[in-house]
Structures are given as C-alpha cells and as structure tokens.
Amino acid sequence: MGKVLKPGVVIKGTKDGLLFYLDDSRPFSAVLEELKHKLENTHAANIWDGPDMKVIIKLGKRQISQVEESSVRELFSVRKNLIIQGFETEGKHYLQGMEAGIEIKSGTVRSGQVLIHNGNLLFIGDVNPGGMIQSSGSIYVMGALRGVAHAGCHGDTNAIIVASLLRPTQLRIADVISRPPDQWDESETGMRFAYLSDHQIAVEKIHQLGQLYPDFEWKANRRRFS
C-alpha cells in the first residue's frame, strides 16, 4: 500500500476563533489547493456561514513571500466571516526577508502628523502626543514615544514596538489595542518594548528582547522624515 499523506490543512477551533495549520513539508501550491477545496466546500456551509470568526494561519517552519500571503488572503475572501488576524511561523518572521530589512527615518512626529511605513522602521527622534507612527512591521523609536504607535497594521502579530522612553497614549499591535495607565511611573527609566502575548499587549525591559526573539537581527537603510 502507498503511504497515506497527512492533511495539508488542519483546522482547530479555539475560544478566540480558528487556527489553520498549513503543512510545511508539502509544496505550498499543494497546500493552497487543499485550502481552496476546504473553503469552497459547500458541505461545510454550517461552519463557514456562521458569525464572524478570527483566523490565525500557522505556517510551521515555513516562511512565505508577499505574493503567497496575498494568495492565501484571496482564498479566504470567499468566506466573508473568516477574518485573518495574522500569520505565524516558528521562531522567525513569517515573511521571507523581513528579519534583515529595516529602514531608518529621523525627525519629529508632531501632533496631528501620521508617519505611515511599510516594513520594519527605526525612527530616530520623538513622537509627540497627538502624533502617530503606523507600520506593517515592527517599530523602533530611538527617542520618546508619547503619541500612538501601531505596529503590524496589516495583521502581523509578531511585530513589536520599542522605544527609548515608552510613554505612549496608545499602543496597537495587529488588531490588539492597549491603553496606558492614567499616570506613568516616571521613576521607570530605560528602553522598553511591547509585544503580543496571549492576544494582549505586554511590556518588558529591553534586555528581555533577546530571550523572547533569539533570532533577532537587522540591517538598515536610512531616510529622513519631515
């Protein structure tokens, strides 16, 4: 008898929604075809046509390209109630090449200004109250973050927010929002970073970054924001 292949797509329900596990040992094209079949299967209408559900795509050890990510999102477009919250890959960023890519910008984000960036961003300067930085990747502020920072704005739940002085009016990572305390403890100094843990934003001192993200590394290109 021939070897029986394990499913290319396994779906598991959680209290927060659905997890789609995509087999990283199979060609991605074959996994996409199986995913397409599952999503278009009318026999599963009682599952697919229910209330809105959050979806996390688990990629195993596989990294995908932006084109492959778009292909997955397009397949899910046939089920309007299935809302992709993010993609996850074990131990690294889910998009190919993202760890090595970070762009540097400098200046000041003043009240009423919004700095929008695609990818990982190192910002040298301050983000004033009323100002906002929004990025599809991680945000690193070498200065005071006193405004709003939204990392992973396209659904990247692995994105982080780092600041030399972390005093934001609001933090967002993917679709999770964290509001600050009514009054900051000004005795707490030093660089800190925010990340998602169990669908909530957690804040740690910067020395914890290497323990939580052991493969962290980056290269940079520099530009000025005005």
From TrEMBL:
<dbReference type="Pfam" id="PF22642">
    <property type="entry name" value="MinC_N_1"/>
</dbReference>
<dbReference type="GO" id="GO:1901891">
    <property type="term" value="P:regulation of cell septum assembly"/>
</dbReference>
<dbReference type="InterPro" id="IPR005526">
    <property type="entry name" value="Septum_form_inhib_MinC_C"/>
</dbReference>
<keyword id="KW-0132">Cell division</keyword>
<dbReference type="InterPro" id="IPR055219">
    <property type="entry name" value="MinC_N_1"/>
</dbReference>
<comment type="function">
    <text>Cell division inhibitor that blocks the formation of polar Z ring septums. Rapidly oscillates between the poles of the cell to destabilize FtsZ filaments that have formed before they mature into polar Z rings. Prevents FtsZ polymerization.</text>
</comment>
<keyword id="KW-0717">Septation</keyword>
<feature type="domain" description="Septum formation inhibitor MinC C-terminal">
    <location>
        <begin position="106"/>
        <end position="203"/>
    </location>
</feature>
<dbReference type="InterPro" id="IPR036145">
    <property type="entry name" value="MinC_C_sf"/>
</dbReference>
<dbReference type="InterPro" id="IPR013033">
    <property type="entry name" value="MinC"/>
</dbReference>
<feature type="domain" description="Septum site-determining protein MinC N-terminal">
    <location>
        <begin position="9"/>
        <end position="87"/>
    </location>
</feature>
<comment type="subunit">
    <text>Interacts with MinD and FtsZ.</text>
</comment>
<dbReference type="InterPro" id="IPR016098">
    <property type="entry name" value="CAP/MinC_C"/>
</dbReference>
<comment type="similarity">
    <text>Belongs to the MinC family.</text>
</comment>
<dbReference type="Pfam" id="PF03775">
    <property type="entry name" value="MinC_C"/>
</dbReference>
<dbReference type="GO" id="GO:0000917">
    <property type="term" value="P:division septum assembly"/>
</dbReference>
<keyword id="KW-0131">Cell cycle</keyword>
<dbReference type="GO" id="GO:0000902">
    <property type="term" value="P:cell morphogenesis"/>
</dbReference>
<protein>
    <recommendedName>
        <fullName>Probable septum site-determining protein MinC</fullName>
    </recommendedName>
</protein>
